[in-house]
Write a structure and sequence with these properties.
Layout lengths: L4 E14 L4 E14 L3 E5 L6 H8 L7 E6 L2 E2 L4 H7 E4 L11 H11 L4 H14 L15 H12 L6 E5 L7 H18 L2 E5 L3 H4 L4 E6 L2 E6 L1 H5 L5 E7 L4 H6 L4 E7 L2 E6 L2 H14 L4 E7 L3 H13 L7
Parallel strand pairs: 3-8, 3-9, 6-7, 7-8
Antiparallel strand pairs: 1-2, 1-4, 4-5, 9-10, 11-13, 11-14, 12-13
Helix pairs in contact: 3-4, 3-5
Length: 322
Protein backbone atom coordinates (compact mmCIF):
# COMPACT_ATOMS: atom_id res chain seq x y z
CA UNK A 1 0.00 0.00 0.00
CA UNK A 2 1.46 3.41 -0.99
CA UNK A 3 1.95 5.93 1.85
CA UNK A 4 -0.84 8.36 2.73
CA UNK A 5 1.34 11.28 1.61
CA UNK A 6 2.10 10.41 -2.03
CA UNK A 7 4.19 13.53 -2.67
CA UNK A 8 6.20 15.43 -0.10
CA UNK A 9 8.37 18.36 -1.24
CA UNK A 10 10.55 20.31 1.19
CA UNK A 11 12.22 23.63 0.32
CA UNK A 12 13.26 22.48 -3.15
CA UNK A 13 15.45 24.68 -5.38
CA UNK A 14 16.63 24.30 -8.98
CA UNK A 15 18.58 26.81 -11.07
CA UNK A 16 19.98 26.85 -14.60
CA UNK A 17 22.64 28.94 -16.28
CA UNK A 18 21.14 31.52 -18.65
CA UNK A 19 23.36 32.58 -21.55
CA UNK A 20 21.04 35.50 -22.19
CA UNK A 21 21.44 36.89 -18.65
CA UNK A 22 24.95 35.44 -18.15
CA UNK A 23 24.06 34.13 -14.72
CA UNK A 24 22.15 31.32 -13.03
CA UNK A 25 18.38 31.77 -12.92
CA UNK A 26 16.39 30.01 -10.22
CA UNK A 27 13.51 28.13 -11.90
CA UNK A 28 12.19 26.69 -8.64
CA UNK A 29 12.93 28.70 -5.51
CA UNK A 30 12.07 27.07 -2.20
CA UNK A 31 8.84 25.20 -2.97
CA UNK A 32 7.27 22.99 -0.30
CA UNK A 33 4.04 21.04 -0.75
CA UNK A 34 2.26 17.80 0.07
CA UNK A 35 -0.19 15.68 -1.95
CA UNK A 36 -2.28 13.00 -0.26
CA UNK A 37 -3.07 9.63 -1.81
CA UNK A 38 -6.14 9.84 -4.08
CA UNK A 39 -5.92 13.64 -4.35
CA UNK A 40 -5.74 15.78 -7.49
CA UNK A 41 -3.19 18.58 -7.11
CA UNK A 42 -3.11 21.32 -9.75
CA UNK A 43 -0.05 23.51 -10.27
CA UNK A 44 -0.95 26.69 -12.15
CA UNK A 45 1.09 29.67 -13.22
CA UNK A 46 2.14 31.75 -16.25
CA UNK A 47 4.66 30.53 -18.83
CA UNK A 48 8.14 30.33 -17.35
CA UNK A 49 6.84 30.16 -13.77
CA UNK A 50 8.60 26.85 -13.01
CA UNK A 51 5.78 24.33 -13.56
CA UNK A 52 7.63 22.01 -15.95
CA UNK A 53 10.84 22.19 -13.90
CA UNK A 54 8.84 21.18 -10.83
CA UNK A 55 7.31 18.28 -12.77
CA UNK A 56 10.73 17.06 -13.90
CA UNK A 57 12.13 17.32 -10.39
CA UNK A 58 9.32 15.11 -9.09
CA UNK A 59 10.05 12.53 -11.79
CA UNK A 60 13.75 12.39 -10.99
CA UNK A 61 14.70 13.92 -14.35
CA UNK A 62 16.38 16.82 -12.54
CA UNK A 63 18.32 16.68 -9.27
CA UNK A 64 17.53 19.57 -6.91
CA UNK A 65 20.25 22.03 -5.95
CA UNK A 66 18.80 22.22 -2.46
CA UNK A 67 15.95 20.59 -0.56
CA UNK A 68 14.36 17.21 -1.28
CA UNK A 69 11.24 15.54 -2.61
CA UNK A 70 9.72 12.09 -2.17
CA UNK A 71 7.14 10.36 -4.34
CA UNK A 72 5.40 7.36 -2.76
CA UNK A 73 8.18 7.35 -0.19
CA UNK A 74 10.98 7.25 -2.79
CA UNK A 75 13.66 9.94 -2.93
CA UNK A 76 13.44 11.65 -6.34
CA UNK A 77 17.21 12.27 -6.49
CA UNK A 78 18.24 8.70 -5.62
CA UNK A 79 15.33 6.39 -6.51
CA UNK A 80 14.03 7.62 -9.86
CA UNK A 81 13.68 4.07 -11.24
CA UNK A 82 11.39 3.07 -8.37
CA UNK A 83 9.29 6.19 -8.99
CA UNK A 84 8.98 5.42 -12.71
CA UNK A 85 7.83 1.89 -11.86
CA UNK A 86 4.79 3.11 -9.86
CA UNK A 87 4.02 6.32 -11.78
CA UNK A 88 2.98 7.58 -15.19
CA UNK A 89 4.28 10.80 -16.76
CA UNK A 90 2.72 12.68 -19.67
CA UNK A 91 5.04 15.46 -20.79
CA UNK A 92 3.84 18.44 -22.83
CA UNK A 93 5.01 16.67 -25.98
CA UNK A 94 4.14 13.08 -25.18
CA UNK A 95 5.79 10.84 -27.78
CA UNK A 96 3.22 8.67 -29.53
CA UNK A 97 4.49 6.80 -32.55
CA UNK A 98 2.64 8.17 -35.58
CA UNK A 99 3.48 5.20 -37.80
CA UNK A 100 2.00 2.74 -35.29
CA UNK A 101 -1.71 2.03 -34.84
CA UNK A 102 -3.64 2.71 -31.65
CA UNK A 103 -3.28 -0.88 -30.46
CA UNK A 104 0.39 -1.06 -31.50
CA UNK A 105 1.17 2.07 -29.46
CA UNK A 106 -0.47 0.61 -26.36
CA UNK A 107 1.30 -2.73 -26.86
CA UNK A 108 4.68 -0.98 -27.34
CA UNK A 109 4.40 0.94 -24.06
CA UNK A 110 3.10 -2.16 -22.27
CA UNK A 111 6.14 -4.18 -23.30
CA UNK A 112 8.42 -1.23 -22.44
CA UNK A 113 7.04 -1.44 -18.89
CA UNK A 114 7.79 -5.15 -18.81
CA UNK A 115 4.24 -6.49 -19.07
CA UNK A 116 3.97 -10.09 -20.27
CA UNK A 117 2.15 -10.97 -23.49
CA UNK A 118 -0.71 -12.43 -21.42
CA UNK A 119 -0.96 -9.23 -19.33
CA UNK A 120 -0.89 -7.13 -22.54
CA UNK A 121 -3.79 -9.14 -23.96
CA UNK A 122 -5.71 -8.48 -20.74
CA UNK A 123 -4.94 -4.77 -20.44
CA UNK A 124 -5.33 -3.61 -24.07
CA UNK A 125 -9.12 -4.21 -24.38
CA UNK A 126 -9.60 -2.54 -20.98
CA UNK A 127 -7.64 0.53 -22.06
CA UNK A 128 -9.35 0.78 -25.46
CA UNK A 129 -12.71 0.75 -23.68
CA UNK A 130 -11.53 3.22 -21.03
CA UNK A 131 -10.26 5.69 -23.65
CA UNK A 132 -13.25 5.28 -25.97
CA UNK A 133 -11.01 3.99 -28.75
CA UNK A 134 -12.62 0.58 -29.23
CA UNK A 135 -13.72 1.48 -32.76
CA UNK A 136 -10.25 2.66 -33.81
CA UNK A 137 -7.70 -0.02 -32.80
CA UNK A 138 -6.19 -0.16 -36.31
CA UNK A 139 -6.07 3.57 -36.98
CA UNK A 140 -2.60 5.11 -37.21
CA UNK A 141 -1.83 7.55 -34.41
CA UNK A 142 -0.98 10.15 -37.08
CA UNK A 143 -4.61 10.05 -38.26
CA UNK A 144 -6.20 10.65 -34.84
CA UNK A 145 -7.76 13.96 -33.83
CA UNK A 146 -6.09 16.02 -31.11
CA UNK A 147 -8.54 14.82 -28.47
CA UNK A 148 -8.15 11.18 -29.48
CA UNK A 149 -4.35 11.46 -29.37
CA UNK A 150 -4.57 12.76 -25.80
CA UNK A 151 -6.80 9.84 -24.82
CA UNK A 152 -4.40 7.38 -26.45
CA UNK A 153 -1.47 9.02 -24.63
CA UNK A 154 -3.38 8.66 -21.36
CA UNK A 155 -4.12 4.99 -22.12
CA UNK A 156 -0.44 4.21 -22.83
CA UNK A 157 0.58 6.02 -19.64
CA UNK A 158 -1.83 3.89 -17.59
CA UNK A 159 -0.89 0.56 -19.13
CA UNK A 160 1.14 -0.57 -16.09
CA UNK A 161 -1.55 0.56 -13.60
CA UNK A 162 0.45 3.30 -11.82
CA UNK A 163 -0.44 4.63 -8.37
CA UNK A 164 0.27 8.23 -9.35
CA UNK A 165 0.30 10.17 -12.63
CA UNK A 166 2.06 13.40 -13.59
CA UNK A 167 0.44 15.43 -16.36
CA UNK A 168 2.20 18.50 -17.80
CA UNK A 169 -0.47 20.65 -19.51
CA UNK A 170 -2.11 17.49 -20.90
CA UNK A 171 -4.95 19.20 -22.77
CA UNK A 172 -3.10 22.19 -24.21
CA UNK A 173 -4.45 22.97 -27.68
CA UNK A 174 -7.38 20.54 -27.38
CA UNK A 175 -10.98 21.66 -27.99
CA UNK A 176 -13.23 22.22 -24.91
CA UNK A 177 -15.35 19.10 -25.47
CA UNK A 178 -12.27 16.84 -25.69
CA UNK A 179 -10.79 18.55 -22.63
CA UNK A 180 -13.95 17.76 -20.66
CA UNK A 181 -13.95 14.14 -21.84
CA UNK A 182 -10.27 13.78 -20.88
CA UNK A 183 -10.93 15.09 -17.37
CA UNK A 184 -14.01 12.90 -16.97
CA UNK A 185 -11.79 9.88 -17.70
CA UNK A 186 -9.26 11.03 -15.10
CA UNK A 187 -11.92 11.71 -12.48
CA UNK A 188 -13.53 8.31 -12.95
CA UNK A 189 -10.14 6.66 -12.68
CA UNK A 190 -9.30 8.54 -9.48
CA UNK A 191 -12.62 7.54 -7.92
CA UNK A 192 -12.42 3.90 -8.99
CA UNK A 193 -8.72 3.24 -8.26
CA UNK A 194 -7.73 5.93 -5.79
CA UNK A 195 -5.27 7.32 -8.34
CA UNK A 196 -3.19 10.32 -7.25
CA UNK A 197 -2.96 13.05 -9.90
CA UNK A 198 -0.41 15.87 -10.12
CA UNK A 199 -1.21 18.17 -13.03
CA UNK A 200 0.15 21.42 -14.46
CA UNK A 201 -2.56 23.34 -16.31
CA UNK A 202 -3.06 26.81 -17.80
CA UNK A 203 -6.87 26.37 -17.71
CA UNK A 204 -8.74 27.76 -14.72
CA UNK A 205 -11.76 25.47 -15.23
CA UNK A 206 -9.38 22.50 -14.92
CA UNK A 207 -7.79 23.98 -11.80
CA UNK A 208 -11.26 24.15 -10.24
CA UNK A 209 -11.55 20.36 -10.62
CA UNK A 210 -8.54 19.85 -8.32
CA UNK A 211 -8.69 19.21 -4.59
CA UNK A 212 -5.71 21.49 -4.01
CA UNK A 213 -4.28 24.21 -6.24
CA UNK A 214 -0.80 25.70 -6.02
CA UNK A 215 -0.08 29.02 -7.74
CA UNK A 216 3.57 29.28 -8.80
CA UNK A 217 5.25 32.43 -10.11
CA UNK A 218 8.96 33.09 -10.68
CA UNK A 219 9.71 29.72 -9.09
CA UNK A 220 7.90 30.52 -5.83
CA UNK A 221 4.65 29.06 -4.55
CA UNK A 222 2.57 32.22 -4.12
CA UNK A 223 -0.49 30.51 -2.63
CA UNK A 224 -2.04 27.07 -2.26
CA UNK A 225 -5.30 25.65 -1.02
CA UNK A 226 -8.62 24.38 -2.30
CA UNK A 227 -10.19 26.34 -5.18
CA UNK A 228 -12.64 27.87 -2.71
CA UNK A 229 -9.82 28.84 -0.36
CA UNK A 230 -7.88 30.44 -3.24
CA UNK A 231 -10.96 32.38 -4.40
CA UNK A 232 -11.56 33.56 -0.81
CA UNK A 233 -8.21 35.41 -0.89
CA UNK A 234 -9.76 38.01 -3.17
CA UNK A 235 -10.70 41.23 -1.37
CA UNK A 236 -14.29 42.36 -0.93
CA UNK A 237 -17.12 41.71 -3.39
CA UNK A 238 -17.12 41.72 -7.19
CA UNK A 239 -19.18 43.87 -9.56
CA UNK A 240 -19.16 43.09 -13.26
CA UNK A 241 -20.11 45.57 -15.98
CA UNK A 242 -19.57 46.39 -19.65
CA UNK A 243 -18.74 50.10 -20.13
CA UNK A 244 -19.18 52.02 -23.40
CA UNK A 245 -15.64 53.47 -23.25
CA UNK A 246 -12.22 52.12 -22.25
CA UNK A 247 -11.49 55.10 -19.99
CA UNK A 248 -13.98 53.58 -17.53
CA UNK A 249 -11.21 51.52 -15.91
CA UNK A 250 -9.23 54.65 -15.02
CA UNK A 251 -12.34 56.38 -13.64
CA UNK A 252 -13.47 53.43 -11.56
CA UNK A 253 -10.01 52.68 -10.14
CA UNK A 254 -9.85 56.08 -8.39
CA UNK A 255 -13.25 55.81 -6.65
CA UNK A 256 -13.62 55.28 -2.87
CA UNK A 257 -14.13 51.66 -1.83
CA UNK A 258 -12.66 50.21 -5.03
CA UNK A 259 -10.00 47.65 -4.11
CA UNK A 260 -9.04 46.10 -7.46
CA UNK A 261 -10.08 46.38 -11.12
CA UNK A 262 -9.53 43.60 -13.66
CA UNK A 263 -10.22 43.88 -17.39
CA UNK A 264 -11.39 41.10 -19.71
CA UNK A 265 -11.52 42.72 -23.13
CA UNK A 266 -14.08 45.49 -22.59
CA UNK A 267 -15.57 43.82 -19.51
CA UNK A 268 -14.64 45.23 -16.09
CA UNK A 269 -14.58 43.16 -12.92
CA UNK A 270 -14.44 45.55 -9.98
CA UNK A 271 -13.67 44.48 -6.42
CA UNK A 272 -15.21 46.76 -3.80
CA UNK A 273 -15.67 46.79 -0.04
CA UNK A 274 -19.48 46.82 -0.32
CA UNK A 275 -21.21 46.03 -3.64
CA UNK A 276 -24.61 47.36 -2.52
CA UNK A 277 -23.17 50.73 -1.58
CA UNK A 278 -20.56 51.10 -4.34
CA UNK A 279 -22.56 50.00 -7.41
CA UNK A 280 -24.71 53.18 -7.64
CA UNK A 281 -21.65 55.35 -6.93
CA UNK A 282 -19.71 53.68 -9.76
CA UNK A 283 -22.61 54.04 -12.21
CA UNK A 284 -23.07 57.69 -11.23
CA UNK A 285 -19.34 58.43 -11.74
CA UNK A 286 -19.41 56.79 -15.18
CA UNK A 287 -22.61 58.57 -16.18
CA UNK A 288 -21.10 61.95 -15.18
CA UNK A 289 -18.37 61.31 -17.78
CA UNK A 290 -20.88 60.27 -20.45
CA UNK A 291 -20.16 56.56 -20.14
CA UNK A 292 -22.98 54.03 -20.12
CA UNK A 293 -22.71 50.67 -18.40
CA UNK A 294 -24.46 47.49 -19.49
CA UNK A 295 -24.86 44.02 -17.95
CA UNK A 296 -24.25 45.36 -14.46
CA UNK A 297 -24.35 42.60 -11.85
CA UNK A 298 -22.75 41.33 -8.69
CA UNK A 299 -20.91 38.08 -9.42
CA UNK A 300 -19.01 35.38 -7.54
CA UNK A 301 -15.26 35.50 -8.26
CA UNK A 302 -13.51 32.31 -9.35
CA UNK A 303 -10.04 30.94 -9.94
CA UNK A 304 -9.30 33.20 -12.89
CA UNK A 305 -9.92 36.38 -10.89
CA UNK A 306 -7.93 35.00 -7.95
CA UNK A 307 -5.04 34.07 -10.25
CA UNK A 308 -4.79 37.62 -11.65
CA UNK A 309 -5.13 39.25 -8.22
CA UNK A 310 -2.48 37.07 -6.58
CA UNK A 311 0.03 37.53 -9.41
CA UNK A 312 -0.46 41.32 -9.26
CA UNK A 313 -0.02 41.21 -5.48
CA UNK A 314 3.19 39.20 -5.82
CA UNK A 315 4.58 41.59 -8.45
CA UNK A 316 3.90 44.52 -6.12
CA UNK A 317 6.29 42.86 -3.69
CA UNK A 318 3.65 41.82 -1.16
CA UNK A 319 5.06 38.29 -1.12
CA UNK A 320 3.55 34.88 -0.66
CA UNK A 321 0.23 34.14 1.02
CA UNK A 322 0.87 32.33 4.34
Amino acid sequence: MPPEEMIVVHDIHKSFYSRQHRKRIEAVAGVSLQVRRGETYGLIGPDGAGKTTMMRLLNGLYVPDKGWARVAGFDTAKQAKEIHRISGYMAQRFALYNDLTVIENIRFFARAHGLSRAKCDERIPQLLHFAGLEEFPSRLAAHLSGGMRKKLALATMLVHEPDIVFLDEPTLGVDPVSRREFWDLLTNLRIERGLTIFVCTPYMDEAERCHTVGLIHEGKLVAQGSPKEIASLLPGEMIELLPSHLIAEEIVSSLPGVLEVQTYGRLLRIFVDDAGQRTPQILQALHARGIEAQNVRQAEPGMEEAFIYLIKRFKRGEGQIP
